[in-house]
Design goal:
The structure is a homodimer of 419-residue chains. Chain A has 419 residues and is of the alpha/beta class. The first copy, chain A, contains 13 helices and 15 strands. The first copy, chain A, is globular, with a radius of gyration of 22 Å.
């Protein structure tokens, strides 16, 4: 994405400029370090760099690691960081203090919570999910089922989930906002239906936390995991988080009985004893540099009014869909995401048989969305830094790519891995 | 550890100064950013900051994350980093290319390899280890045994391990250099004895990799894990690594079937298929900032001659033991580590009933070792940056603390968690 690739763009119309000028969140964009001229609609894959993060990390590197060295575990409270940042994230997802901890990756956290849930739900053999859920969610459940032998992952379409919950369902594992389609599931209704049948629910918040309202305790949720490097702007591969409702914490034991989850890790005794509360779901030593970056990203979001974030997520995505409906009609795109904002998150996807090449052609025009196999191009709207003029220009670029069949260029056909 | 705490020290004798002047590794100290006046003997807990790391991380933060954003997974080969850095670490531990990958924490990697080993060793029920092994190793095995129900962790003293291996032993799990005592086990002999009984061996290299010679393939080793933030100088909580001998890679499947270990992660298909070779032991998205810091630390060690590193580890630790034997005789210390370097790693431990307070009193004198419950004070010697004059001064400070009973001060009794 060198600056040379960024084309000169037409000025947006007055109403678009007015929307940016009147945006109550407009001041937040300056708190991110974004490349000049780039329209970045992939914050749902890797969030942008908060402007305060480089200096914070430089201090962590030079002063905490370099100068204070091992003492920083105490003097800079590295030890407390997983719970401290967890408590901050709790404020974004309707959880209470002591219900969230930062640890490991989404994948590893899924394994911990699924395993603990299966143990509690003795006699029930099924993990219920939907086909096409984010692959790592399905894979982790498959790995666990393979390991245990007598449990199985069962998938049914999202619309059939509630009907499929039965006495054999140990845990329902769903992603709140679907990574590909952006469809948002009804957390309250599915959780209530699961509880009525004695099942637990594990929610993956990777594509919702930080972008749209999540109310775990308001929905009576049991368990959740989520990603640190998408809307939380924690940097590439930032550690993930997990939530266990307080009422369940004493009943659940992590299979990954690492020393950081021990009741007294520095007693160095031979026998594992799970720590109190959410601490027992920690495992090994956390990657502090990545964790400190995550804290900066979370702090930034906490400065914004969550109602304004949600309203802007709706306005941005609605404007984009309308723009595509108007300007790209008849050009082969079909909306994959639900049309109504009430049914989706903050990203919007379209299918096209040449989706991969379209994605590449857009990147060449300085508009970064992403491709999701086999035929989806996906655009993420991050309320804190995406402008209405960005959305307008992205629609313009997309129309141009389709009208000119820019995607026919052989240059856009070479496949590379894209997250 | 403010500079105000550093006392003026006596100048070392001429032979000590000569040893530093003649040290063939003396140039490496300037490649670390160490606090002025501090004698840091805890690089076996958190390695010091390589001088090149801040600039490398600033580039990763500003340019790769901030500017190139999601494209960096390809353009800066973030995708390839776990295997690339793994291949570099392989060069330090006698492994081949494609046998090591950087992933997760030591704890999580232990779980992956123990589980995969147990599955392969069907019919054998025991994980054999030693009491007092690093707690997370024992805890992870306990968590796994608890989860599976029909397997168990059995511990016998290190000297009895070989005799204890029997037809029920699925895997022997040992730490090559003991975290507390510094005792080094005979990797070749134990591995051969295990193989003779049909057992596998999993070696934890956390306290050996980067400090003393390790020859996994020379010993016919099966499996290993190791730490990124000790002698590899990868920074606090740097990701860990794992080794699977090439001959075993196709037979073993990770229970943590994350998408980064899938054969084709970007096909986004519903069914897990383990990737080729060592890649299948990756799990979730790696913490890139911490991983990039680790690569700097590993690159630095690779610039040094491993024979010189080992020779200096011996010379430093031998000098320290002699110094304590001479200057602290009769003052209540007893050597916990093996006397002969052939039987230990690069750290040395002494027991004393007031070990905790002694450790605090030394820190107040600018000498940083660490305390390990219940009664051990531990000193790590990092050949690339520890000087002979540091070792001399540490011995001097220790003698002073003991002679003056400085540890009797109430200020040193307050306990804080120390890694």
């Amino acid at each position: 994405m060198s600056p040379a690739l960024i084309l000169t763009r037409a000025a947006p119309p007055a109403d678009i400029l007015a929307a940016d000028a009147n945006d109550p969140l407009r001041g937040f964009r300056a708190r991110f370090q974004l490349p000049e001229g780039l329209i970045y609609l992939d914050g749902n894959s890797l969030g942008a760099l908060p402007a305060a993060t480089p200096a914070r990390l430089a201090r962590a590197i030079d002063h905490e690691w370099g100068h204070d060295l091992i003492g920083s575990w105490n003097s800079h409270d590295w030890f407390g960081a997983p719970r401290r940042v967890g408590d901050k994230i709790a404020g974004l997802i309707g959880a209470g203090a002591g219900e969230v901890i930062v640890a490991d990756s989404v994948s590893v956290n899924l394994f911990k919570l699924l395993t603990a849930a299966l143990e509690r739900q003795a006699g029930r053999r099924t993990i219920l999910s939907e086909p096409g859920n984010f692959p790592t969610d399905l894979y982790m459940a498959q790995g666990l089922a393979r390991m245990l032998g007598d449990r199985a992952l069962r998938t049914v379409p999202a619309d059939d989930i509630i009907a499929a919950i039965d006495d054999d369902t140990a845990v329902v594992m769903l992603t709140h906002v679907h990574y590909k389609t952006g469809r948002k599931l009804d957390m309250a209704a599915i959780t209530a239906a699961a509880h009525a049948k004695g099942a637990l629910v594990l929610w993956d918040l990777s594509h919702s936390a930080g972008a749209i309202p999540v109310d775990l305790n308001g929905c009576g949720a049991d368990l959740a995991v989520g990603c640190g490097y998408k809307y939380l702007n924690g940097g590439p591969g930032a550690p993930a988080f997990l939530f266990v409702a307080r009422r369940l914490q004493d009943e659940l034991v992590s299979p990954l009985a690492g020393w950081m989850g021990h009741a007294r890790p520095f007693d160095f005794i031979d026998d594992y004893e799970p720590g109190a509360g959410i601490t027992r779901f920690a495992c090994g030593t956390p990657p502090m540099l990545s964790l400190i970056a995550l804290e900066q990203g979370v702090d930034l979001i906490l400065d914004a009014d969550p109602g304004l974030i949600a309203a802007k997520a709706e306005a941005l995505s609605e404007m984009f869909i309308r723009s595509v409906e108007t300007r790209c009609a008849g050009l082969g795109l079909s909306l994959v995401s639900p049309r109504a904002f009430a049914d989706r998150g903050s990203h919007v996807s379209f299918a096209h048989e040449r989706a991969y090449e379209i994605c590449r052609a857009l990147i060449a025009r300085g508009v970064v969305g992403d491709f999701r196999a086999p035929d989806v191009v996906r655009f993420g709207f991050t309320p804190l830094y995406t402008r209405f003029s960005d959305v307008w220009a992205a629609g313009d670029a997309l129309a141009d790519v389709l009208e000119t069949r820019a995607w026919d260029s052989p240059a856009f056909r070479v496949r590379t891995a894209v997250t």
